[in-house]
Amino acid sequence: MKKIIYLFFLSFSLFTGCNDDKFLRENADDFLTVDNSYLNAAQFRTGLNEFYRIVRQNYNFQDNPVYFFYYGAGTDVFFRPNSDQEPFTDWSYINSTTDIFRIIYGRHYGMLQNVNQLLKQTENPEVRWNSEEEKLAIQAEARFFRGYCYRFLGCMFGGVPVLKEPVETPSLAFTRNSREEVYQLCVEDFEFAGEHLPVSVIEPGRVVKAAAYHYLSEMYIALADEKGGDKELYKKAVDAASMVIDQKVGEYHLMTERHGYRKDVAGKDAFWDLFQMRSVDGFSNFSYQTGNKESIWVIQVDKFITGGLNDGLSTRTDQERVFWPAFWGSTKFGYDGVARDWMGRGIGWLRPTNYFNYDLWEKSGEEDQRNSEANINRIFRSPDPIIDGVEVANYDTTYVTEVTLADGTPYTAKTRPGDIIKKEWLTSRQDTMERIYPRIMKLGSDWHYAAEPANGFVMEFYAIRMAETYLLRAEAYMKYGDKDNAAKDINVVRSRAKAVPATASEINIDYILDERARELVGEEFRTMTLCRLGLLYDRTKRFGYYASQNTVNEKNNLCPIPQSVIDANSQAKFPNNPGF
Known about the structure:
By secondary structure, this protein is mostly helical. It has 20 helices and eight strands. The protein has a two-stranded antiparallel sheet with strand order 1-3. Strands 2-8 form a two-stranded antiparallel ribbon. It has a two-stranded antiparallel sheet with strand order 4-7.
């Protein structure tokens, strides 16, 4: 949000243990309570802002690769390359004490408690509403976030406790509801949100009807799958997505023409334009309010306002560090280990699999613009002094690098500025795992604030982009039995990329997951998608990095319930997911 005001609610630590015993010594009188703080719509909106802040933690929280695991670490699209013994690259390291599960489980249940407290307060007769519609809109926004939390928890963990009211008294006897019951609540909340949220808003990043209908479509599919393939629910999923696609809840369409403040940069395309970092004067290519009609919900970040970034990452966002290779750090082929503006400063924490780098695009066809050099950088060159701002007189430099070829033969590689670095010169693990591999350009920037690549990178995040709405409706059509319309929806997305159209006979869940990877890599929570479908094991076993293939197990189709949650519920049965 451009205007971020934080008001923290009083909550109990019910589902996860608290490591800091100072929490237990805090006095409730030190806090504003819901009853005495939320008495008009403006105060409720202040409370709602806190939910946006917490959701932002799912995207940008700590400078640590484990916090990005749900983008698909160890699955068909990414793995952690530093070692074959990294968690998620090696699935045998994953268990109920893996701390990231405690963190994300606790994050969403903490938000759920606050959402339920706020919802309860909306019914307090002391609240001064201007109209019933105002009250319903506040409730709709809160219920959107409750649906969001249970969507995350249900997809990732399966059945979890369903709470529709705030918990007033600590308990040691919570029990798990079924996954079907979790998805049912998501459907109810997103239905309500879709009915009562506004069509449009002035503030970038605030949720609207289209966001609710997008998630509603997904949750209808999930509920239908859980019920064994309920055709009526698949039809409802089609109808929910159609509310967005058919422009019944606002003007939305894919951006097929060059747009935004960098639209005149030569050699690029409309897909590239979608992911350009906010300009120095604040123009956002991501924002619906500035003309991006594909943008449905964007996670707001801004380096230059107080509260514009999360506390754990107060100077930057981490897409570039996580997903880009550290080619700048090489001391070969003319590089000197110093990051410069055009290079970015990737660390290579999540490397694309060979399946993503090669097989996906061979299936898609050479014409697919999403695989063009503008969108996936595959050609690495020796640094050009003109680009680097070095004296042009140095352009006559010849870079000499001694390498050992794969057959053990020593070789002297000579390059001039701008020469291509040949693949056969990359022979060490560090060369190919950390330094040089295909660079997904939408996850970084060719310029940085103050030309400073380390902390001069701050990019927003798409939580929902309309291309995904088409792919959700295609999934619903396919499962309903209508592959013709499924292919038509997929081809709307492929058409923008100038890719060869899909045929109805090609359409199955693998094709849809492949297309999601091409279009949404680094945006969607890939692990969540695969867990929702029960296909994390299958896709990783077939397409993952070899260390992940060899260690993934069917139990990994769900995340383990954190052991701290099981231990905290000592007065009731709270079983873990099968295999954990």
